[in-house]
Predict the structure.
Amino acid sequence: MNSDPKTKPSLHTVLTPQLLDLYEINDSIVVIIDVFRATSTMATALYNGATKIIPVDSAEACIEMGKATGGITAGERDGKIIPGLSYGNSPSEYPKDFIQNKTLVITTTNGTKLLHMALRNGAKEVITGSFPNLSQVVAYLKAQNKPVILGCSGWKNRFNIEDTLFAGAVIEEIKDHFTIHCDSSFMANQLYNQHKNNMTEYIKTVTHWHRLAAYGLELDMLYCISKDIAPSLPIFKDGALINGV
Amino acid sequence: MNSDPKTKPSLHTVLTPQLLDLYEINDSIVVIIDVFRATSTMATALYNGATKIIPVDSAEACIEMGKATGGITAGERDGKIIPGLSYGNSPSEYPKDFIQNKTLVITTTNGTKLLHMALRNGAKEVITGSFPNLSQVVAYLKAQNKPVILGCSGWKNRFNIEDTLFAGAVIEEIKDHFTIHCDSSFMANQLYNQHKNNMTEYIKTVTHWHRLAAYGLELDMLYCISKDIAPSLPIFKDGALINGV
């Protein structure tokens, strides 16, 4: 293990996509975080045996890519499946007996947009993280020993608490292995430690909970804050996320 | 006091200047926050009797405005007075026997830039906030009963903890009077409550502490987290901040 602080790689937390351009991401592993629900659903679909997931940043691209690949198209706006697509963004829609050996083409409001933004900004190594695959993300980042950018998808470029909490959970597990000079990371880690023992109650106070609860998605959200129930490692390679486990 | 939640005005926290354009600020009171050290110094200079403070967003503008007004010019880069200007950004440079009845023209790395950005974005009511004038800010916001934007200056567009802590301190005092659907505000308030009883120790862990401590500015920073020691209310009117108390 690398224990010399001078040679520990850096770690930064990007609180919203609108701040991404402030950070050097080319030589870092970029972790895309969209707890409610894109990256939780991605972890789940890959854990349940999806061949690959193609993240796209618009409904139009989703329809086109679905036709080109024969994949299942998925995307929601305002809690409803987008016209022209077939499924939604809920992890519960992708059990093993449905998604195994299939390709999922998915667009979401925040997470898939941030992933494409990171690629446009020069990211060469992209994975996705969520509580359902927390330990896989942690193990991968420890093993790689490279600079890390924890990228929170937020809500329409604004800060959100649930993505920051996940960043804080990752930091809690790996902070001894990285050099951290980043107030966003300190704050994320403190927020997580403050609430890690009452996550179920705390998560009901955040704005996104109320937004999705209005669509009856409470169980989805409780799933999305459950640690290690879909232990896959979505790694972006050749235009798609595959399971690196 | 307005106690009907339906008619309570909104409150949002903008974590860095780079996020300002996501918020409607035209009909809000915008509170510019730059704890280390612009807004702490502004509160101090006005409390000590400065006639007005002209915040400018570049060294060139500072020199020009200093000539035009006969005011004292102030600004630092990397802990040193900017060539062509006369004083620095430390509150300790502006005691009563020096600054009373004078005009201060000041430029800073983050705070004065955010103030000008807010003006360009259409803000009509701008005040500045810092721990030295916390209670004045709180009293003003409660009395006005208008929507509030707490604007953190951050560090070169990145999030910082000390400005967020101040936003959280304001929120703690006024949250019953506002409608808050804003994760940034929830987080800021929680961060403040987590650390309010050990501010002196906590503040030594943030990145800006280390940056300014390298210039020997520890006493400045301890001053800047001291509540209500310069109880003025800097309000922007006709191109300058004046004391609204």
Strands of chain B lie at 11-14, 29-33, 52-55, 72-77, 80-81, 103-107, 125-129, 148-152, 234-237, 240-243. Chain B has a mean pLDDT of 96. Residues 11-243 of chain B form a domain with the putative 2-phosphosulfolactate phosphatase fold (CATH 3.90.1560.10).
